[in-house]
Write a structure and sequence with these properties.
Blueprint: E1 13-19, H1 23-39, H2 47-60, E2 69-76, E3 79-86, H3 107-114, E4 117-122, E5 128-135
Antiparallel strand pairs: 1-2, 2-3, 3-5, 4-5
Helix pairs in contact: 1-2, 2-3
């Protein structure tokens, strides 16, 4: 059988949803992302923390009344890409240096710590997209004959 070289060897999984730029919309983004990752058989952490921070930033700093933000998740091979697009293309993200007693301002520092890579892109006007990528490993398949994980290093005998 001849395989078309333009077709990816593994399927691309994706999910997108538009949400209101409010604390409730940001919370819903985190919950929906976690549920989508579970349905794909992928671990929810650290992705749900990244989604929470990027969505909170879209609701707080990227908010324009009457305009939603977009959450997009997609997986290619072992990379999960998280994108949050808002309509404040004039305000770009940058990690802040905060004092230990500060009560906010650490969101992008957390994204930087959890993500393998992150950044942002402009446009089309008036939008910007903040993105982060993490390497994901699907859980080990369960061994149907004994309920184990299929990983002999984790099997115990009693």
């Amino acid at each position: 059988m001849i395989q078309n070289s333009a077709e990816p060897a593994t399927p691309v999984r994706n999910f997108s949803v538009q949400l209101s730029p409010t604390p409730r919309g940001a919370r819903l983004a985190r919950l929906l992302a976690a549920e989508q990752l579970r349905s794909w058989g992928l671990p929810t952490d650290p992705a749900r923390h990244i989604v929470a921070e990027l969505a909170a930033n879209a609701a707080l700093h990227g908010r324009v009344p009457g305009r939603d933000f977009l959450l997009l998740l997609y997986v290619v091979d072992d990379t999960l890409r998280i994108e949050v697009t808002d309509t404040r293309g004039d305000r770009f993200p940058h990690p802040q240096h905060v004092t230990p007693e500060a009560e906010s301002g650490r969101g992008l520092l957390l994204v930087e710590a959890f993500a393998d890579r992150w950044g942002f892109s402009e446009g089309p006007a008036p939008r910007k997209t903040v993105w982060a990528e993490v390497t994901v490993q699907p859980p080990m398949p369960r061994n149907p004959c004994c309920g184990g994980t299929g990983d002999p290093r984790k099997e115990t005998r009693g």
